[in-house]
Structure formats: C-alpha cells, structure tokens
Amino acid sequence: MKILGLDVGERTIGVAVSDDLGWTAQGIKTIKWKEQFDTIKEELHQLIVEHRIEKFVVGLPKNMNGTIGERGKACERFALKLEEAFQLPVDLWDERLTTMAAERVLLTADMSRAKRKKVIDKMAAMMILQSYLDAKQ
Predict the structure, then answer these.
(1) Range(s) of the domain holding residue 49
(2) pLDDT tens digits for range 74-105
(3) Is the pTM of this model over 0.70?
(4) Are 5 and 113 in contact (CB under 8 A)?
(5) By C-alpha distance, which of 9, 27, 11, 21 is closest to 128?
(6) What element of type H or E holds 128?
(7) Which end of the chain is more exposed for a tag (fewer CB within 10 A), N or C?
(8) How far apart, in Å, are the Cα atoms of 68 and each of 46, 106, 116, 126?
C-alpha cells in the first residue's frame, strides 16, 4: 500500500510518498497554498493517480504537553477535507519536533539557509511518514 505523507503548514505543504512495501519514505515536493483546500485539490489528485496512493498520513502538531492547539485543529480540518474529497483513509500522526529535526539534519549537512527553506517542508513530511511506517512494522 502506497501512502502519501503531508506536513501541512500555513503557506506550504510538504509531501512525501512511501515505497510499495511501506518501508521507506521519500520527500517529493512542496506545495504552496493559502489554506484554501480547493486550490490544491487537483494537484493532490494528480499525486494520488501518479503514485497509486491508497492512504494519507497527515502530521498532527501537538503541544509538548500533548494538547492540540490551533495549528493542530487546522490539520484535523484538512484531514477531514482530504477524506471527503478523495474517499481514502487518513491517519493523523504526531509530528512534534519533526521540523526541528529536519532543520538539524540540514544544518549538519551545512546547507545554506536559502536551500534549507526550499526543502525543509518535504523533509519534515518524509520524517512524519517514516516515523509512521516504522511504528506500523
């Protein structure tokens, strides 16, 4: 089963896809948006078809104490719209610290700020999806 992992932010959505066996995640792109689902629906549909997606994993940003704040609620709403639009299952996955971890990896690789900004979201999506895949094995 191929899974599409999404790191949903206010202006961008990082996208990652699993391999056919569900072992590894690969970051594939960053989608720019303005928190209007209809503006990205066709692009998501193309990804579903191109990669034969059967499920979504959406990062759920929780506060460090486990509560869900406004950004988490926005991700929950996004997940519901995904499910309604594409009739595919959606799992929400705790994404605490994934963007910070991705930033650390990129800093360790001595990547410039401009280059980090271009890849951070898809790398965070990859980390969310890989964490999900690892937990399900």
Answers:
(1) 2-136
(2) 999 999 999 999 999 999 998 876 666 666 77
(3) yes
(4) no
(5) 27
(6) helix 113-136
(7) C
(8) 31, 27, 27, 22
